[in-house]
Amino acid sequence: MTNTVAKRMRVSGYVEPSGPRLILSSRDNTRWHGFSLQVASVPSSYESFATPFDRYWMSVIVSGHNSAHLRTGREDRVVTFSPGSFCGYPAGQHWDHVHWDGQPVESISISIDLNQLKFVDVLFEQRPRLEATFCSSTDPGIIGIVASMRHELETGCLSGRVFAESLSLALAMRIDALGGGNADIHVQGRHRLSAASARRITDYIETFLGNEISIGDLAGLLQLSASRFAFCFRNTFGVPVHRYILSRRIARSVVMLRTQRTEIVEIAQSCGFASQSHFTETFRRFLGITPRRYRDREE
Q1: How do residues 211-243 score in pLDDT, each as one tens digit?
Q2: How far apart are CA 297 and CA 299, in angstroms?
Q3: Shortest CA distance to 273 belongs to which of 229, 211, 203, 231?
Q4: What residue ranges in 90-216 does DSSP mark as E strands?
Q5: Is 80 exceeded by the pLDDT of residue 7?
Q6: Cβ(167)–Cβ(207) under 8 Å?
Q7: E strands along the chain, which residues?
């Protein structure tokens, strides 16, 4: 594995000799609100039969070199995988039989469910096109996003719903861009929210700051698709949705620390943080000091 890939895609070091072994699954954490994700190890030699997918599916190789021999009817083909490469398949059945040969492989598989993020285009905009099939492609953007998704899941989904949704949205849009989708990021990027729409969104965020906030719900307020809303929001406020919400939570916590004697754990909860430790870590990252020391300094 190259140094760059190794830094972005951490390897667990675990290899199951007898068959595929699940290492991590988003289904085990109810706080995860992004695309379904699984980390698994596949031994050096393994075979399986027909696997139909109910939606677009992709897998990123974290470690190991391997070749998959795919057979469909009389057609045979070989796809070679290496660290940092990925494959993607639209819904349906893509082989009758597959046989793996080479080194043990650790991979991250993601099921891309657009409806999960409320990609319904109320204004009949072009939804992300994920028809393209990728076989052993490489892309730094894909690697970075998927690595961030894994890290967020491994650390307990502390950044909340909007962050997991933002990562999933970014992944869908990146795949669409690689597949030659119609969505032109640069053209859409010039769009901004009107003053009235921006106020409606910020009022909603302030009202529900202590709760889980969904990008889909925010987009729905303006009858926009999640993808269009994310672009317009960033161009209006200069930061992604999840970053803006995080900054507002910190701002509210600062006011509470200055004006109330409320316990820090209660402040963390009322400002929408998953735990006191996550609040402390985030507060220190923003202001360079812990909440407790900040309060002591202000007294």
Answers
A1: 999 998 999 999 888 888 988 999 999 999 999
A2: 6
A3: 211
A4: 97-102, 105-112, 134-138
A5: no
A6: no
A7: 21-25, 36-42, 45-49, 56-63, 66-72, 75-81, 85-89, 97-102, 105-112, 134-138
Coil, helix or strand at residue 112: strand
The C-alpha atoms of residue 85 and residue 187 are separated, in whole angstroms, by 29
Contact, 233 vs 193, CB < 8 A? yes
In 10 A of CB 223, how many CB atoms?
10
Alpha carbon of 58 to those of 53, 102, 112, 145: distances in Å? 10, 20, 8, 13
Return contacts of 194-201, CB within 8 angstroms, 24+ apart: 197/222, 198/236, 198/237, 201/233
Which 8-state DSSP code applies to residue 271?
T
Query: pLDDT digit string (tens) for 187-196?
Result: 444 588 999 9
Could you report the per-residue pLDDT of 69-79, keeping only the tens digit for each?
888 887 888 88
Which pLDDT belongs to residue 112?
Answer: 87
Does residue 52 register a pLDDT over 80?
A: yes
User: How far is the C-alpha of 88 from the C-alpha of 94, rounded, in Å?
Assistant: 11
Q: Which of 53, 40, 254, 6 has its CA nearest to residue 147?
A: 6
Average pLDDT over residues 101-128: 72
**pLDDT > 70 fraction of the chain, expressed in percent and rounded:** 85
What DSSP element (H or E) covers 94?
none
Of the CA atoms within 13 Å of residue 157, those in its CB half-sphere come to: 21
Looking at per-residue pLDDT, the higher value among 266 and 121 belongs to 266
CB 116 within 8 A of CB 35: yes
Please report how many Cα atoms fall inside a 13 Å half-sphere around the Cα of residue 271, on the Cβ side.
Answer: 30
Classify residue 115 by its DSSP letter: G
